[in-house]
Each structure stands twice: as C-alpha cells, then as structure tokens.
Design a protein that fits this description.
globular, 523 residues, nine-stranded parallel beta sheet, alpha/beta, 14 helices
Amino acid sequence: MTGCIIFKIVLILHGFSYDKVMNKIFQLCFCLLLMLYPSVLAANDYPKRELRGVWVATVWGIDWPSKTGTSPSVISQQKEELRSLLDRCRKLNLTTVYFQVRSMGDVMYESAIEPWSGFVSGRRGVSPGWDPLEFMVKECHARGLECYAWVNPFRWSSGTDYDTAHDRKWKKQGWLLKWGKYTVFNPGLEEVRNHIVEVCREIVTGYDIDGLVFDDYFYPNRIPENKDAADHNLYIREAPWMSFGDWRRANIHKTVADVSAMIRDTRPDVRFGISPAGVAGKHDTSAAKWGAEHCGVKAADWQFREIYSDPLGWLYQGTVDFISPQLYWATGHATAPFGPLAKWWSNTANLYGTHFYSSVTLERIDQGSRSENIRDLGRQILTNREVSIDGNLGFVIYSAKFLPAVERMLAEGPFAYPSITPQLFPARETPPAPDGLKLKGGILSWKPVALGERGIVRYTVYEVPRNVSLSDAMAENGDGLSGDFLLGVTYDTEFMLPANGRNRYAVCTLDGYSTESAPVWIE
C-alpha cells in the first residue's frame, strides 16, 4: 500500500494523471493476457475520432421502456431507465445514441401531424404526459453524448390494424401499401413523400438533435412486380417506361433526397444517415450503375430486389452524410464475413466522400459461447479501424439492452478512452475558440460560443502533462491536439477536472460538423 501511495505522488509531481497511467498499465497487462487467447484486442489503439454509437429500440419496448403507461410512477420509472442507460453510455465512452422516435407512423415527441406512440403511453394516440425526445436530448447533452433521432420512414404496421384519427385519415387517403403482414406508407405517392419530409422537419426544427437516421424498412418484403401488387396501377400511370423495380427504387431515392435537402436548408449541421441491410452493390445489382467496385462476398444483395433499397444510389447522389450498414454476422461468417464487408463499405463510402459507420448486433450473444461472442465484438471493432482508409471511423451496437454483457470488454479495451466524432466537410470554416477560460475549485469554465442560429456547439477538453511540450501535444496528422490527452466532450461551458488538477488544460470549440477550433490554454 505504501509503495502505491509513493508511486502516485511521484506521478502527480511529474505532471501525470495517476488514473490514466494506471489504466494504461492495466491495458498493457490486459493485452499481454489476451495474447494467450485467439483475440485481436492486443493490437488495440485509441483513435481520437471515432463515432461510437448504440441503437436504443423503443418499438415493442425492445430496449425501452420496460413498462408503458401515463401514471406518475410509470413516468418516473421510464425517465430513470433512460438516465441509467445514458450513464452507462457515458461510462463506456460512447459518443452517440440512436433513439428510436418513430417506428410505426407513431411518435415519441409532441407532434402536430402524427399520433403518440403506444409503445410509451400504452395506447396509440394517447400522450404519455411528457416528451421522451426532449428529455433524451437534454440528458444526452448533459453527459456529452450526441442524440440522433431514429426514424422508420415508411413502416406503418407489421400486422396490427391501427385505428386512431390519423390512421383512419391515411387509410381514407389511400396512403398505405400492404403486402403479406407488412403495411407501409406508399413511397410512390408524392404526398406520402412530402409527409415524411414534414415528419422529419418537425424533429429537426423542434428539437436540438445532432443527427437523424433511417433504418432498413422500405417496401414490404418480396412485394410482387406484377398486377398482384397494389401499387401496379400507380406505377403504370407514373413511369411505364421504367422497370417496376427501378421505379420503386427511384421513389426511395426521392424521399431520401427530399429529407436531405430539407435538413440542409434548415439545420445543415444536423447529420443525416441511413442503416441499410449489410450487403449491397453486387455485380448483378447496382455496382456498375453507380461506378463502384462490386461487393465480392457470396451473400446476396437481397435488399435491392426485395425491399427496393439501393444504398449506392444515396452515396452517389450525395444525399446522406453517413452510411451505417447492418453487418449482423460473426467475423468468420461463410457468406457474409465481417472483414471483407467492412472493407468494401469503407472503400465505397470513401469513393463518394461519405462516412462509413458499421452497425453490428449482439443479439446472438448467448448463442454458443458468450465469451467468444464478446471477443468477436472486439475483433470487429478493431477490424473496423484497420479497414478505414480515410480515418472516418464509426461503430454502432444493436442494441442498448446488450451493453451490460460487453461493458467490461469495451471499458477496459477498445473504448477505454474518449473520442470525438469524425469531421464532416473538412474544408468548412474553423469555429472560433472559446474565450474567458478560468480554473477554480477543480472546474474549468469559459464563455459560450455562438455559431449562428441553432448551430450545434460543443467543447472538447484536454489535459496535457507539464513535461510534454505544446508542439509534442499536437496530433501527428494535423488534427489539433492529440487524442491521447482528450478528457471528454461537453455541451456545457464548464467541465470538472480529474482530482489532481496540476497539468496544463485546453478547451476547443467543436461544432456540429465536428470541426474543432484552435485550443485555448490555461496553466
């Protein structure tokens, strides 16, 4: 015990953070131990820029809430569950939360055009008595986390016949398209596409979200391309010179482009992306059309013909800021191996100047060996880093309920240190640095920076030992201060420092594009 105290005093006197040094020592031992086992975590490093996200599914209460209702006790429980989840995200050094706010044409926020979700209140169309999205944004930002609104743009039902006033109106207007058990808002109707834009506009203009993300529900699976399809007459009337399939894919492209244009017109620093199925752009689907190298894995590009999703079109047209394909297979899967898929997506996104953030699932965590599945998650994180050719790293875990199972591996391994999200539009003007930096009672504070109307403003905080020169503290790739010294991100204008508080500290402005200002220092 005496030796540990002396060691800690020596570190502090020399300007080092005891916690960081001990964590590094632990990491070294951890990695040496892992060398005895089949794992790639021993090759771990800690990138400064990496989106680390988690999907929070609210449909059917998959991740949240555990109980529906409108009573004060239920509301209190629902809020506490979200706080607990976000505390875990912060502890794991995640950067981003994808919060599902619209799953079946129903919403988790105050809306003038769609009904409240029964997945929070217990009954579709009934207010839960509070605004989950407003709460989630506030609580995310209080922890330095980005909040993305996750929207299912087309799905209306997977079998249930909803009957609120909104639903009756949509039926009467002929907006719904059914095949099998699935019913969607018909993408072929211009008024439907406009409605989806307005849904997204409500979210983007009404809430201080950092991003908007669509998932992989488009047309009903395997809806036929003949007269049996309910949209056949619409197709003949609208575009008989095109194939049925191309017309449907064009409708999806139009929707994506219209939502993208709305965001760029209203809040351009809000990021917009889509999470499609994991295999796309095969030689027999769309690679040649969009000038891309085809995806060489054995698995089929089923989304192209079965739900009319063509991600390469969005990338080529520049209507998304990021693509987050669902690579929901084990690393060594026979027909859809993670490594080749991640590399192809990374290369393809880079070809079009778009970011690639792989989405992975933990749903198979208890299928077979749990410890091996946890190690496989570690492999995929590191593989994702290795295949990046532009440094725009991103990794999103589905879903939040599985985080406790992998918490220790993430916190002691690949996510042991904080990161900031990749930068969009590198040529964008650098934001002004904060002013009035003060240090009192272990708390750094500064004056707020304004970046235009509704511009997203955050701050990065760094700790640099006194025996490290300011030039040596800079990142080798020219990206400001090295991520080795990053303490965290905050939306506030103050930050509580580690206990010793004896090093140099710097604060930078971080805008919605993740462009970082020059640092402001305090000794």
